[in-house]
Amino acid sequence: MKIEEKLSLLNYKTDRSYAHITIDPDICATCPDHFCVFACPANCYTLINGKLNFKYEDCVECGTCDIACSHGSVKWTLPKGDNGVIYKYG
User: Fold this and answer.
1) pLDDT score at 89
2) Is residue 86 part of a domain?
3) Of the candidates 9, 8, 10, 12, which has an alpha carbon nearest to the alpha carbon of residue 84?
4) Which terminal Cβ of the chain has fewer Cβ within 10 Å, N or C?
């Protein structure tokens, strides 16, 4: 099974009032690397016409983007309460 198929089986409880990941668009606009795009297993980061597009709602809470961004744009925290990805077996 491909990663995209596995990710499509996940359930999420999205907190629309609190984004647990934020990015600084000014830093992203000048980023020469965009490691977040290549590192995120859930494809939350994409480049569209050279501009970073970001969607926190599909995050699997691995924290990879926080580590991959060496320019300080990504601010990652755990979702509040019982929000976020819901894993079947913990």
Assistant:
1) 66
2) no
3) 12
4) C
Q: What token pair was written down for 78?
A: 């755990």
Instruction: Check residue 68 and give its pLDDT.
Output: 94
Q: At 28, which CATH number?
A: 3.30.70.20
User: In terms of Cα–Cα distance, which of 83, 30, 47, 84 is closest to 62?
Assistant: 84
Q: How far apart are CA 8 and CA 22, in angstroms?
A: 23
Q: What is the 3-state secondary structure (H, E, C) of 2-31?
A: CHHHHHCCCEEECCCCCCCEECCHHHHHCC
Question: What does the mean pLDDT of the chain come to?
Answer: 88
**Number of domain units in the chain:** 1
Which residues form the domain of 33?
20-76
Whether 42 is covered by a domain: the verdict is: yes
